[in-house]
Input
Amino acid sequence: MRISNGVFVLATVIAQFLPLSQDGGLNWVGLPQAFALQLVALAACLWIGWRSRPGVAAAAVALVAVVLAAIAPATALYGAGLAGKAGWGFWIYMLGLGFFAWVAISLLSDLEPRDALARRAVGILVPAVFGLWLLYLWEMVVIGFGIPRVLLPAPSQIAVTLAGATDILAADFYQTFVKSVLSGYVLGCGSGFLVALLVDKVPFLQRGLLPLGNFVSALPIVGVAPIMVMWFGFDWQSKAAVVVIMTFFPMLVNTIAGLNAYGAIERDLMRSYAATYGQTLFYLRLPNALPFIFNALKINSTLALIGAIVAEFFGTPIVGMGFRISTEVGRMNVDMVWSTIAVAAVAGSVFYGLIAMLERAMTGWHASFRQAG
Amino acid sequence: MTIDAALPGEKTMFARAMDGRGLPLATVILVLLVLWYAGAVALNAPVLLDKYKRQNTDWTVTQLVDDSWSMDRPLLPAPHQIVVELKKSIFDRKITSKRSLVYHSWVTISSTLLGFLFGTVLGVVLAVGIVHVRALDRSLLPWVIASQTIPILAIAPMVIVVLGAVGLTGLVPKALISMYLCFFPVTIGMVKGLRSPDPMQMDLMRTYSASSWQVFWKLRWPSSVPFLFASLKVAVAISLVGAIVAELPTGASAGLGARLLVGSYYGQTIQIWAALVVASALAGTLVALMSMIEKIALRRMGVAA
Output
């Protein structure tokens, strides 16, 4: 910990004596605002390293100080025209800043609040800070080195493109996500579930299908995409078909496994109640299968999006996320590609998150959640 | 399964066969084959009927069935057509030929394995970091999980174009995509595995005053090996998927993915199916190979497997 603090202090001091831009001339002292921010951050860093004890106060001070320290390079890049020609003074400082950010994240993650709500807040804050730091680093590196847009656009450029092309992106989202993914997902998961219920009645079939299903789930199923495009045409139906095939087997295998996940004692109890097959199914076996079913739903949520997008590489009407990615790559319009990827990432995460929330609501009684409390 | 089946010594041959896996599996596969042949007729018949009509020829049912199983570009080729195509493109051509599936498989396999290697190393390194550094555990692990909710295959064309512009072409960009897919199961499995020693064992190491280095090599690492292999089996399968998809969007000239794409451009269904069958066989072989290595490794470590 102290080593990291020391590295930041040392790097900041060294950076003062190095040129800030590649053509020389400018120093950190020459940018009064940035210099002031650095002084504040230095003071905070020294205090954290040698005077404070780990705790809420140190973590909060570290977080604020890192944010202030991070504003300094930003003002240098955008305000002092350093974009594309940042020199050693800049990068040495950035290196030190990385260590300081690490100090802040370590302090934050060592917090152990008693309050459940506060603990959850810390649990969200730590990865959020880490993610923001990565975004910031990406921005600084791209702008500072002047990396051409075609290779890697900065997050800010992507955001601008994203905001400017919302109608195109919304149309793509509707075509790919709402039409292909959702319909395919519902059909695939639904049929997988129903077939599992049927197969469950016939142990003979079950023993035959289970190894087959396990084998199929290891196969590169996305490969059927060209065939589906040939059968069902270019529009969303073919993508939905790919999604159905991709989601069917994980659901089948998991549901079958889940339906057999009940204990012998419970089964004997149901027997002694003279419960019918249906009653055993609804009151014992399906509830016990829920964690498995949700597992499949979660796996499938990512598979479905991948399947639909990849299927669009094989032919599509002139709308859709996969279409957008493959054409804009061809036109070297990389900002647009990254915007589409951002939309896909958010859509995928939200989809997954919704299912995880539903799972928490429906299987909160299960042992895997109880201890987390 | 059921209580009545648990009585030994009373089973007939038939009952034993019913209980095993072989017979049910064979039945299911047989049914699937029959369905496949029927499906080939059903899907291809409309095209043929149309053709008969235009040529004003009479047709019989046998002729229709025969023809639909031997079309040049069927909507659904019959299994034996695929077998013939496989024989042609695997055995009848030199393996260096651009039309040999062995050549294309080799291209795909090499990037699969390279990506698998990268991914495994990255996954293990991340897991070791996450287990030992608390801040990494809390800041990185959520992002590792979130990274997989992103449809990463969508980025495949992007990654390949960007790396191509920096001068990286050929195997490595494809391998990087495989790597992105397969580091995840390795990380998750290894984090679980490295944490699997129970507190008693950890306490014992403590009473020996073992350094954390020793705890790692003598306790954590050995107890994580079963978890590692479980992850590796998943990882190698998705590594293959990554390699195939990475060959799709960039106009790659070789590899099973390129074979799929070319087949779909020219409507060569039989070629697509042949590539798919080879890809499935590869996936099966790779996973089987992993299980074999797993068995050997676990036996040598003294774990009854």
